Amino acid sequence: MNYLEPFNISQIDFNKIVYPKSKNGNTKKLILIKYNDKSKLKNFVFQTPTLLNIHKPEFNGNYADIEIGLVGKETNKVKKFINFLNELENKIKLDAQLHAVNWFNLDNDNQTINFQKIIRESDEHSQGTMKLKIIKNYDFETILQLNNNKRIGLDNIPNDSWCKMILECFGIWINSNNDFGVFFRPILISFTPKEKQVYNYKFLEDSDDDNNVDIPDTEMNENIFMKIESQQLNNKPLNDTTSQLEYNDIQNNNVSQIELNDENLLNIHIDTKYSSDSETEESEYDGQAIVFNNIDVETSNN
Q1: pLDDT digits (tens, 9 = 90+) for 125-181
Q2: Quick one: which of 29, 177, 254, 288 has the most CB atoms within 10 Å?
Q3: Which sign, positive or negative, has the C-alpha torsion 164, 166, 172, 177?
Q4: Where are the alpha helices (DSSP H) in the chain?
Q5: Cβ(281)–Cβ(253) under 8 Å?
């Protein structure tokens, strides 16, 4: 079998992104995205660095959502990937200005289009996260692997694990309210459980070990104490035959107890609505406004 290779993000020319056609659904429109590579239109497919899969997948209709933290083993590669996503976002917003009349439902009463950011803000991950849909339908299925080898199902995806992905920048989704964003279609995702930290320590050689006597703690029991008769207290020789066993006012010291309270960490999850048709997604929007000529483009942080 011949395998295709994804584009290297460091070699992508954003001016070669083209929009050959659009598809209309019941409530949404999808603007397809292709990449012009040497005068041939190809799928806009690229590879991510190793990133962090945060949670188990969440089922949403015909899809399953996963949230990817933009943190990885190699900091420089993650930074380059974040820059790539930001440049792609700027390109999409610029092209939305150029094609606004054909893409959006604009009139005298509605001149605003709302863009959903690719990178989502996160309280836990300072560089943000991405949400992706794992797809399985009649004409496409996301391939899931463990350790880049064994194929697995959705139930076997490990949470809090590393993952590397091949993504397709498939299209731009637009709904009837002129909300729009980029739809990424995961082609291949390989998960790798995090390595456990192993501490390989050994004891130091101690020359004093032979001189130490290990005396284990003895249970405090009234039946094992022997009282010495008064003749010993008077410095008289102890008659071995006069000793007797009895309990004599043994008091235990009070031991203070320290109560430890565990601090619970609250994971804040952004609940975003997704569509199960046309493989698109949508959410509520707020945030800063970006002006495209006479068109206001509001950027959502959700």
Answers
A1: 999 999 999 998 888 999 999 998 899 998 899 888 999 999 999 999 999 899 999
A2: 29
A3: negative
A4: 75-98, 100-103, 230-233
A5: no
Say which residues have a Cβ less than 8 Å from residue 86's Cβ, sequence separation at least 6: 118, 119
CATH code, domain carrying 67:
2.40.50
Rounded CA gap, 299 and 179, in Å?
10
Number of domains in the chain: 1
Least Cα distance to 174 among 34, 292, 24 occurs for 24
- C-alpha to C-alpha distance for 73 and 162, rounded to whole angstroms: 9
**Nearest by Cα to 296 from 285, 284, 282:** 285
With CA atoms as reference, report the closest residue to 133 among 19, 267, 275, 22.
275
- For the stretch 50-97, pLDDT in tens is 999 998 898 877 789 999 999 998 999 999 999 999 999 999 999 999
Amino acid letter, residue 179: D
Amino acid found at 140:
F
Taking alpha carbons only, the member of 99, 68, 109 closest to residue 180 is 99
Residue-wise pLDDT tens digits, 25-38: 888 999 999 999 99
CA atoms of 298 and 290, how far apart (whole Å): 6
- The answer to whether 26 touches 277, Cβ cutoff 8 Å, is yes
Q: Kindly state whether residue 75 falls inside one of the protein's structural domains.
A: yes
What pTM, to 2 d.p., does this model score? 0.66
| Within a domain: 223 | no
Domain-located, residue 30: yes
38 CB-near residues (< 8 Å, 6+ apart): none
**Residue where the block lists tokens 């405090």:** 220
Rounded Cα–Cα distance for residues 91 and 16 (Å): 11
Q: Which domain holds residue 57?
A: 9-194+272-300
The token pair that represents 153 in the structure block: 């199902």
